[in-house]
Structures are given as C-alpha cells and as structure tokens.
Give the backbone structure.
Amino acid sequence: MNKYLFYPGCSMESSAKAYMESMNAILEPLDLRFEEIEDWNCCGATEYLGINLIPAYSLIARNLALALDQVGKMNGTDGTHTVVAPCSACYLNLAKADHYMQERPSLGAKVNEALAAGGLSYKPGALDVRHLIDVLVYDVGLDKIRSRVVRPLHGLRVAPYMGCMLPRPDYKNRWSDHEHPTELDDLLRALGAEVIEYPLTTSCCGGHMTQIGPETAFELIRRLVADADDRGADLMATVCPMCQMNIDAYQNEMNHFFGTDYHMPILFFTQLMGLAFGKEPGEVGIGMELVNARNAMARVGVEVPLTQEPAGPRKKDEGLPMPRRWTKREVEKEAVK
Amino acid sequence: MSQEKIGVYVCHCGTNIAGVVDVEHVAKWAAEKLGGQGVVVARDYKFMCSSLGQELIEKDIKELGLTRVVVAACSPHLHEKTFRIAAKNAGLNPYLVELASIREQVSWVHTDKAVATEKSKAVVAGAVARVIENKPLEEIKVPINPNTLVVGGGIAGIQAALEIANAGFHVYLVEREPSIGGHMAQFDKTFPTLDCSACILTPRMVEAGTHPNITLMTWSEVVNVAGYVGNFNVTIKKKARFVKEELCTGCGICEEKCPKKVVDDVFEAGLGYRKAVYTPFAQAVPKFPVMDKANCTYFIKGTCKACEKFCPTGAIDFNQEDQLINVDVGNIILATGYDLFDARRVSNYGYGRLPNVFTSIEFERLCNAAGLTNGNIVLRDGKTAPKSVGIIHCVGSRDKNFNNYCSVICCMQGLKFAHLVHERTGATVYNFYIDMRTAYKAYDEFYQRVLEEGTLFVRGKVAEVTDAARYENEKGKLIIQVEDTLIGKQRRIPVDMVILSIGLQPRRDAKEVGKLFGISCSTDGWFTEKHPKLDPVATMTEGIYIAGCAQGPKDIPSSVAQGAAASARVLDKILQKEVALEPVKASINADKCSGCRICNGLCPFNAISYIADDNVSNINPALCQGCGTCVAACPAGAISGTGFSDEQIMAQIDGLLMRNLEVAGV
C-alpha cells in the first residue's frame, strides 16, 4: 500500500465531483492510499498570481507547509514526501511556488514570513509535487494498471487531452514531451481503448476566458471539439477539471455561437479507468456530464441509466431582475466624482 | 639578494595598455624599487613586439649583459614566442624570459587608472621574482615518421589524404563506414552552383582509392593511439567484412542474390533499402561489399549462404574475424565529420508523427536520382507530387532548447531545396527563416535567384506544424503556424509537404574520440582548435590536426579548405624531419611517488604510465604537454612542472604580494 499526501483542490468537491468519485474508486485496486492535507485552502487558480505575488504564493505555500507538517505524522513509507494534486492548475501552482521559492530565496523568505503569522513554515524543495496521472503512470506503472483491467475498452475511440498546464513549464522534468506528451495515450491504451492521434492535446481549453471573453473561449473550445470530431473520436479524456468543465459545460453555448452541432462528451481519465476496472457507471460519476457519453459508453457495452434530462437551452432565471450594470462611461463618471 | 641582471620592458600596446596603465610610471618604479631584486634596466616602449622593440631587448642583453628578461605586455599566448626568439638571437636562453600580462589581466579588465597602475606593478614584481627562479631549458628534438593517419573519409579527409599523398608521402585513410565519401555522397546537388554532388566527389574518391601512396582502410576504426608527435603508434580495428578483398571483383552478384532487405538508416537516411550484404551506393570506394552480421539470415538462422553460392570468385568468407592492425605514423588528421540533429526532438514540428514532414537529409535522398524515388519529389505515399512545400530553417540550431550555435549550411540548403522543388514540381515553396545567412562567394546571388523564381519567404520562427485543421482550406494539409515578423501577424499556411532544415551536431562519440587522440571538445562538443582564428586546424596536442565539420559546422568549400590546410601543416612537419618539443614538462620525483596512480587517469595526453616493478608512475616527456593537471593532483607533491616549479610559483606569489619588497624595506 503506497501512501501519498493528497491535495484535492476546490473543484474536486464541486464541478469535478465525477473526478473525485472515480479517483476514489480506483485507489484501492491500485493499492494506493491518499491522505488528504488537513485544513487545505484554495490554490488561487490562475487569477491570484496576476495581482500580487506574495499573498498568492503565501496562499499556495500554506498548503505545502501543512503537508510538510503532516509528513511527520505519517510513517516513512513510499511516497510520504509526495503531494498529489489531481487538478492541473493546483499541480502547477503548488509546483510553481515550490520552484520559485527555491530559485529566489528572497521570495521564499517573504512567503515564510507570511506563513510564520500562522505558525507555519515551508522549506522549498522538501516536498515532491506531482499530478495524479504522473503517479499512476510512473509509480503504479502501466503493467499494474493493465493487470487490473477486467472490462477492456476495446473499440472506444478516445481523444487524449492533456491540457496546457500540465506539461509546461516542466520544472522537474517529469513529462515525456512538452508539446506532445504521451502519458495519457499510454494509459488509455493500457485500458484497451483505441487512442486517436490528437495533435491538440496540449492546446488551451480557454481557461477562465469563458468568464471574461467568451468569444475567445468558444473559438478555443471549437478547435478542440472539432478536431476530435473530425478524427472520429467517441469522446475526449481529460486530466483537468477546468478543461472538463469548459468543454462540457460550454459546448452547447459554443454550438449556438458558431451554429454547429457538435456532440463531444468529455470524461476524466479516472472514469475510464474505473470503468475498465469493472466499476459501474454510477460508481465513477458517469452520467454527471452535461454532454452525455451514453452513445460512447454503449460502444463498450455499458449502459448509462438516464439520470437527467438531456441538456437543453438554459432556463430563464426566476428571481427578481438585477439592477443594470454600469457602462464603462458611467464607471468613469463615478470615478470623476 | 639576487645575482641576476634583469631587464624589465613595459609595453604601451598603443593605447591598449597605456590608455589605462601609467606605463612610464611602472617602468620607472621597476627601475627604482626592484633594483634590489636585480633589475638593472626598465624601459617602456610603444610596441615591444615590433622589430624596434625586440631590438631594444636584444641590445640590452648584449650591452648590459642581462641574464633575465621580463616583458610586461600581453598574454603569453600571443607574444611569448616572439620575445623568446629575440632573447635567443641575443644569446640568452629563451626560457629565461617571462611575460607579465598587463593587458588581458589589467588594462582590458580595469577602468580605474590608479588601481590598474598599482596592479601592473604587482604583476611585474611577481614576474621579476619568478624569472629569478627560471632555469635555462633546452628544446627536445625528436625525429618525425613521414607517414600520416587521416581519420574520416568524407570530403575533408579525402582532400587531406590526397594532398599529402601527392606530395609523395604515405597516408593511411581510415573510414568507419563501408565506403569513403561521407555525407557529400548522399547529396543531390551542391549550393550555390548546383553541380551534381556525386559528379564532383566521385573522381576524388576514385583517386583516393587508387593512389599508390594511400592505404585505404574502410569499415575500420581507430581503437588505440600511443606515442607522441612524430612517433604515434595507432591500432586500427578492421571490422570483418565477411568478404575477401583480394578475391572480390565488386560484381555485385552477392547483393543481387541476397534475400534479406532492410531499411538503410545510414546512407539512405531511412528512406531506402539495402541488402544484408551491400555496398552503400553504386560508386562506393572501395567496391567491396560488407556483410551486416546483425541482419544476415545465415548469422541469425544458420542457413542461407545465397551470396556464397552465387559468388563467382568464392570471395565470401563467413569465418572472417575483426583484425587489429598497428601502424606507425608521425601526424594525425581527424576529419570525423558530424551527425545530424534528430528532428524528433522538436516535437511540435511533428517529424516522425506526421508522415509528410521530411528532414533535409531525407529530402536529399528523395530528389537524388539514385534514391528510392529516382529523383521524383513525392509525398510519403510514394506517388503524389506536392503542390505546396514549406521549408523550415534553423531546426535544432540557434535555439536555446537544443543547440545555441548556427549550423551554417541550413540557409543555403533551404534555398537549394526551394530551387529544386520549384524546378521539378512547380509547387509553391515557402521558406521560413529567422535570419537569412548567405555569406561567402556567390551565395547571396543564389538567394536573389531563388527570390526571383518566386519562392515565398516568411521571416519568423515556426511555432508548430500540425494536421489539426481549423478552416476548410486546411483540411488534409499540414498547417504551418508562424508569426510573420515582417507584417507582425500570426499566419497559418497550409502546405502538402514540410522539409525541416536540420542542424549539424558533433558526432555522438566525439568526446570519446577526442580522449582517444588526446584533444578536447568545446562545450558544444566540437573539437577545439589551437586558436579560433589563427590556428584553426591545429590542436593543443602536437601532431594532431582537425579538419572539416569535426571542428564546427561548415560547408563543402570550407571543409575542403581545412582538409588542405591540415595537410599543409602536416607536410611542414614532415619536411622538417624532426620536431622540437616545448621543454615545459612535468616530471615525477620517484622517491616521493607512492604509486597511487591518481595521475595516470587524469592525464589528457596519455603521457603517464605506471611502472609496476618499481611501483612508481612515469611521465613520457615527449608526450607531456605541460598542462599541469597531474602536478596539481598529486597527493604526495611528487610531480613538478618544469617551468612551473614550486619555487617559481611561490616566488611569483611573494612578488605579487610585494612581500619581498617589504623585507627589503621598500
């Protein structure tokens, strides 16, 4: 039984519940034990670092400091110094904080000053920050994963989508390639799936542009979905909650925007692993996705019970109307006052 | 108090030194304050290295009876020899001259005049203290074996071998592959004149193959080098060909009958096939085939022997073994060439993933009439001619992720490809370049010609080659995503074929080969020349010369020029009949040596051997280059360097710290 420290991140408990459920479902068959970092906080995602570095890094480092405290309480088994993050953004932020605190001692000192206020400290480099798929492919190994497969995903055409944040920038040289990493491809193949050539595997899903510049995000989503569709994928597999949400939740709006009618389900790779390990769809969160994967699942003989209405146009808000937002001109006027 | 009469000469070097250091003051100070050390005269002069400057020193030696000379000027690398010769002319042992570097180590690195002047004084005081401890040394003379070893049978090696052979001296030309010819034999056309590469190369190959003064040893590798300049003993492994050269007529029947066909990764760059017994190409020199043991059916399964059955002269010999051959040579030229950058490393260009992405060497074979497609430029499907072609420059070169250096040939190679594609297919050709580098004779004119032919040039480093179509016109094409820096916009250019102009790299085993011959490699891995400008074909090891791309990326004319230059240097050595070795050598005090052998492995020139009977190590003075590595490493302090003895070094340090002056009450 290999123990790891586990940093779930916010989305695993909300938008990416399916990821959490499916991950938990495959831990036992692979002899893994994840110990959640107690009292962890948000990693700050992509926004905070753009505003003020010291508080942003302090927020991230607090989790590392807590994790380091917890290391002492675990017995010295394999992986005790390894923090596993299932979300690409969390992984990147934790790794980034660790790296820059080490590279720039002045930053490290300032962050530690902030941490000291809470009675914490973190020595950069003390922990290994790794992504879930990294641990599965390189620690658990493909052979072991292959040996647990009872329901091979033969005939399921999967587009492997790694997303942009995972392989770059690769501070610790963990990935096979920065533009075309093959870890996800290899893992899916080990499950018996047919992995299609997907050149956009590290292209951006739009990130938070869905909130601040939807047209830009729609175009990025369209590229990903259209290429997977062109290449005959039944579904896409992802390693990142953000990617999953953008492609799943905004696909309908994207279709409206471009006048297209793509139907490209996207599942977490752990859901496909769980399925291949013989779990039932409900146990690994299949059915929670908005662009349903029912047809794709039928290809491997899995029937997904109807749990929801097919995604239709958005319902109108039923509450009271909100006051109108200020226009840019009005903002400037206010500022003059 | 020193018994010596020392002259100190401070050079202005124009304003190079005098601009920062108060040279007159330094000279005056030396005359006044270093008198106690034996300085009898100190002068400053505008250019000490000029004839008049040298005469000044010679005159003082003769008239004042100087016994030691210190020249405060540039680095010893530049003019030590000049002043030593001047001293010799005046009857003083040349090793009693010491150079104090007040240019490289003082004036060029300081701006504060007062401080620089003080430092110059210290450097001069150090040199004066040191020169007192200098011992007169005599050069060692050794005879030179007139034979020469040339390693590498590419165009540079062939040129070097022919020049020496034509001058009447014997050459052993060793080549690792079955045939000489090197990379040039793979090319279709050569820039900028577009001569057929084989047509200009093969006459030279034949000449080298038949020359009475050249012993050609292909399918062979140097495995050991012993000895020193003038007297090298080289062991060459002649790999088993499994073909008796004395019987083989080169008729090619064995190759024709051999049932085993394999992809030829070497000569055909993976874009063609050969048999298990083969000559790499039709004009191969020598004509004898070699058998590829790893792929031969007989060696794998124990049956077949088709070649043996059909050979009309009975030349096939399955029992042949590798042979070790010893040759004595006086000089060695390394022309070991280059490897090509592995384009798969730039994964965003898709080589190895996207079928219609080709490397430059693949394209050479594609448009070569002797290649797999008989010179037809087609896509990977083997039949479709491309309608549009993108040529990407600087793949793996000028990129901090891969190689920092410029590979020199890729721009012209890209232009040549553009011309050939245009001429043979009429396709639209794009060149994607960072900077267009078309230096040298008639190169830029060729660029102008290609421009006029209508090739499109986009300045920008290509971000990605992908088959992920975004728009209708991109479907089924390779899309080149690039920032066109001349218009300041991102562009997506769909093409049928992409050619990557891949860079040149040092040979994979360059470091080991360098160690074998006792020469060093630069940080990039190319063999290091003695001087980057003034001595580009010699190395720091006497008697070892380098030529061609082994020294750094270069085109054919430059490789040929270096081959010829190296041979001129070798001929110069041969004609001197004997060589004077620098007497700056390390020597081991056998009484102090504990026989620990730490020094043996450290010597970069293989000069130290262990004498088991006496349990001591011994340094061969002819081999030693006086680098001092062993001196520093010896835990017992048993090794001292002639010309760099402990006494000299300690005296110099005392001088630098002006310690001796304090004692003298200055």
